[in-house]
Amino acid sequence: MRILITNDDGINAPGLEVMHQIATELAGPDGEVWTVAPAFEQSGVGHCISFTQPMMVSQMGERRYATQGSPADCVLAGVHDIMKGTLPDLVLSGVNRGNNSAENAVYSGTVGAAMEAALQGIPAVALSQYYGPANRDIDDTFEAARMHGLQTLRTLLDKGVWTKDDYGIFYNINFPPVPANEVKGVRAAPQGFRRDMGFGVQPHDSPSGRRFLWVTGAPQQQPTMPGSDADVNLQGYISVTPMRADLTAHDALELLKAIE
């Protein structure tokens, strides 16, 4: 198997090393793992692409490249340039430092890379490690992902739904905020929504008098709809969420017949 890996935390992020370890085992002794990742952190860029400016690509080692672009750019670079003519069988994005459950998935560059791969017709999975009081101070904060990532992917590749339609399915996996030995299992879960929270801004004035805004987040331990991704994560389960890039609100289409 030929696997392309990327992330949004950057080429030197520890989670990318975890992803490479998982991908190497998944690819097998006759497989290949190619890395194309952002040169610098690109968290929160979603499905952004560098449409109005070029991006530099630098080879860092054998099958290892860094780009001055977004995670989606990295997929484009890998598919259409670096691996051109011998496309990957699978794209894996992550392992992200922090969860991409609930509304975080909308902003996530990790998910954005998997989305771009799906748009290119390539099976793709985004993987993220949730943090909380039970795992943020342990020696290996990626322990749950490191220990359970390979089997979760193998099961998903074997039993998951993989489509070849225009907006093909890709997957968003989040590992719970607990040590590996406390992971309770895997749950298929819809994307949740954390109510009474969200991103905002906090203003600051620089010494020169210029005004700057820092984007602020919110606590990640908020409950979501029972059975949704963040809910099962906080219960100790790995969440697996099927997604599509199709943004149509299909449930509202019939109601709009009145405007025709």
From TrEMBL:
<dbReference type="GO" id="GO:0004309">
    <property type="term" value="F:exopolyphosphatase activity"/>
</dbReference>
<dbReference type="GO" id="GO:0046872">
    <property type="term" value="F:metal ion binding"/>
</dbReference>
<keyword id="KW-0378">Hydrolase</keyword>
<dbReference type="GO" id="GO:0008253">
    <property type="term" value="F:5'-nucleotidase activity"/>
</dbReference>
<feature type="binding site">
    <location>
        <position position="8"/>
    </location>
    <ligand>
        <name>a divalent metal cation</name>
    </ligand>
</feature>
<protein>
    <recommendedName>
        <fullName>5'-nucleotidase SurE</fullName>
        <ecNumber>3.1.3.5</ecNumber>
    </recommendedName>
</protein>
<keyword id="KW-0963">Cytoplasm</keyword>
<dbReference type="InterPro" id="IPR030048">
    <property type="entry name" value="SurE"/>
</dbReference>
<keyword id="KW-0479">Metal-binding</keyword>
<dbReference type="GO" id="GO:0005737">
    <property type="term" value="C:cytoplasm"/>
</dbReference>
<keyword id="KW-0547">Nucleotide-binding</keyword>
<dbReference type="InterPro" id="IPR002828">
    <property type="entry name" value="SurE-like_Pase/nucleotidase"/>
</dbReference>
<dbReference type="GO" id="GO:0000166">
    <property type="term" value="F:nucleotide binding"/>
</dbReference>
<dbReference type="GO" id="GO:0008254">
    <property type="term" value="F:3'-nucleotidase activity"/>
</dbReference>
<dbReference type="Pfam" id="PF01975">
    <property type="entry name" value="SurE"/>
</dbReference>
<comment type="similarity">
    <text>Belongs to the SurE nucleotidase family.</text>
</comment>
<comment type="function">
    <text>Nucleotidase that shows phosphatase activity on nucleoside 5'-monophosphates.</text>
</comment>
<dbReference type="InterPro" id="IPR036523">
    <property type="entry name" value="SurE-like_sf"/>
</dbReference>
<feature type="binding site">
    <location>
        <position position="96"/>
    </location>
    <ligand>
        <name>a divalent metal cation</name>
    </ligand>
</feature>
<feature type="domain" description="Survival protein SurE-like phosphatase/nucleotidase">
    <location>
        <begin position="3"/>
        <end position="195"/>
    </location>
</feature>
<feature type="binding site">
    <location>
        <position position="9"/>
    </location>
    <ligand>
        <name>a divalent metal cation</name>
    </ligand>
</feature>
<feature type="binding site">
    <location>
        <position position="43"/>
    </location>
    <ligand>
        <name>a divalent metal cation</name>
    </ligand>
</feature>
